[in-house]
Amino acid sequence: EVQLLESGGGLVQPGGSLRLSCAASGFTFSTYAMSWVRQAPGKGLEWVSGISGSYSSTYYADSVKGRFTISRDSSKNTLYLQMNSLRPEDAAVYFCAKGALTVAGGLDYWGQGTLLTVSS
Amino acid sequence: QSALTQPASVSESPGQSITISCTGTRNDVGGYDFVSWYQQHPGKAPKLMIYEVTNRPSGVPDRFSGSKSGNTASLTISGLQADDEAYYYCSSWTSSSTPVAFGGGTKLTVL
Predict the structure, then answer these.
(1) Chain A: nearest CA to B64, how far in angstroms?
(2) How many Å separate Cα A91 from the centre of its chain?
(3) CA distance B34 to A115
(4) What is the pLDDT of residues A14-29, one digit of tens each?
(5) How far apart are CA A99 and CA A110, in angstroms?
């Protein structure tokens, strides 16, 4: 059974940093693309970042480019999102999602999300 | 503002069919067959319903189907059931600097 468990969310001040983690199990982690998708309270889904499987190519939304870094550790079956220079508009539930062989494909499994609050 | 345009809400009676549209451009929906649809119940994680325009993941009922014509993708749900009441989001690979776009979401009400 595929499982994705996010952690690392919390309260951070504007300008601060935080690292989210997503522990994956039930599939060959290194093979598949992974993405982070966020959802601000009462709003729709926003794709944030993705990383391919084999070559770990990375992709970012314009809204986070230069501030967020996605990475993966296949030895630990864990996906990360390093978030720097956080802004109030980054506040959201962050979902980790398993993709297809490429970042372009659909996201077939999702975690339950971890909440990021950005406030002073 | 979302890159992909969906109606904010739709409604229909149980047992009927409904189609939700997702309009983009030739740089996203019209240019790639990487269109997906997700169902999200309040407080829950999204669930993949359709991928690559027309494909259903294992376990998704065949009442759900996807299609595309030009720059517009569509999700059709037939034989509506109460549990289909949810938000539905489309997404597409794009050639823009943000490579994955989501639609703004459509709230489906089953009357």
Answers:
(1) 16
(2) 13
(3) 28
(4) 999 999 999 999 999 9
(5) 9
